[in-house]
Amino acid sequence: MAERWLDITDIPAEGREFDFDDQELWVEGLREFNMDFAPASPLTATLKVTPEPRGALVRGRLTGAVSAPCDRCTREVRVDVDQSFDLFEEEPIPGEESLEPTLLRRRGRVLELDVGGLLWEEFVLALPVKPLCSEDCKGLCPSCGQDLNAGPCKCGGAELDPRMAALRGLTIVKKD
Ligand SMILES: [Zn+2]
Ligand SMILES: [Zn+2]
User: Fold this and answer.
1) How far is the CA of 134 from the centre of ligand 2 (A)?
2) 140 DSSP 8-state letter
3) Strands, E, within 21-54: which ranges?
4) Hey, where are the domains in the chain?
5) pLDDT tens-place values along the chain, 176 residues long
6) How far is the CA of 25 from the centre of ligand 1 (A)?
């Protein structure tokens, strides 16, 4: 995963704010995990790091937007990202295998936070499992592939839809 190490040594007790707007992180991550999302507007974050005796508190917010194909009809959908986070990252103890994965590392007297890893985790949490263009998107006909939002298709494949099956029982009585 794309790492971005931020030096957080010697942060005053009241904390310090950082801005993150490196768009390469998202491009790299989406490519590495082969995800069907593309950046739609810049994903930026502000975070505040406050030192703690055994680690650091990281609070912040990630905002922006990505686009993805609708899970039913494949139309491009804009997905707004607005993810707030409030995390405690524990400093690893030298020579000890930590149980929780931590995003902090110490090199000499320098303490660093993997802000790339942290924001990526928050980004993934913000994404819908199945992006939809609308909650009641009718999707594509499984037989002919027509977008059923545009109207019923002629192939009859849509009759597989149980909502349509009820209609099939109807008989149309013609009056002379
Ligand atoms: Zn759709
Ligand atoms: Zn069809």
Assistant:
1) 20
2) B
3) 38-52
4) 5-126, 138-176
5) 678 999 999 999 999 999 999 999 999 999 999 999 999 999 999 999 999 988 999 999 999 999 999 999 999 999 999 999 999 999 988 777 766 778 999 988 999 999 999 999 999 999 999 999 999 999 999 999 999 999 999 887 645 555 555 555 555 555 66
6) 28
Using the mean position of ligand 1's atoms as its centre, give its distance from the Cα of residue 134 in Å.
6
**C-alpha distances in angstroms, 22 versus 27, 48, 64, 118, 161?**
10, 17, 12, 14, 45
Q: Which listed ligand is nearest to 146 at the C-alpha?
A: 2
Q: Give the distance (Å) from ligand 1 centre to CA of residue 162.
A: 19
CA of 129 to the centre of ligand 2 (A): 26
Candidates 68, 89, 77; CA nearest to 11 is: 89
Judged by its nearest atom, the ligand closest to the C-alpha of residue 136 is 1
What is the Å distance from ligand 2's center to 19 Cα?
A: 50
